[in-house]
Specification:
transmembrane; mainly alpha; 4 helices; 87% helix; transmembrane helix; membrane
Length: 142
């Protein structure tokens, strides 16, 4: 029983870090540096760090803990809702990679890429909310 609780707890902590980090970037970091002369450089530096921890590491661990939870709590990938969440997760990973490896890297020197990065980040945040909601519904057996 402890294994189920541990993996579910870890999955919730990772989701909190990922979605919470995006909220923090949007509501705290972005407004603070909006009018600063070092705005672009700060976004690049913060983006690099969050890309490593928030995207590459956290999303990888979310996939692993999500699959373990699917097997421990639901007997595998048999529920349609779990498969739908995996599809949403794949979309989130794709958008994260486009954001981090294409738009974000070019945003410093291109207003077009900066706009793309902003919109991709917002879309990913909204998809993150949807993924958390789906996780709650799955856990409640809905």
């Amino acid at each position: 029983m402890f294994t189920k609780e541990l993996f579910l707890w870890l999955h919730v902590i990772l989701a909190t870090f990922w979605v919470g980090g995006m909220i923090f970037l949007s509501l705290v970091i972005a407004p603070y540096i909006k009018d600063k002369p070092f705005r672009n450089e700060a976004f690049q530096e913060v983006g690099k760090r969050f890309s490593l921890y928030g995207t590459m590491i956290t999303l990888s661990l979310l996939l692993a803990t999500g699959l373990v939870n699917a097997y421990l709590l639901h007997g595998g990938l048999t529920k349609r809702s779990i498969m739908e969440k995996l599809g949403l997760f794949a979309l989130i990973v794709f958008i994260s990679l486009v954001h981090d490896l294409w738009a974000g890297k070019r945003a410093l020197n291109s207003k077009k890429h900066a706009l793309w990065a902003r919109w991709l980040g917002l879309i990913n945040l909204l998809l993150g909310f949807a993924a958390v909601y789906m996780g709650v519904r799955i856990r409640l057996g809905m």
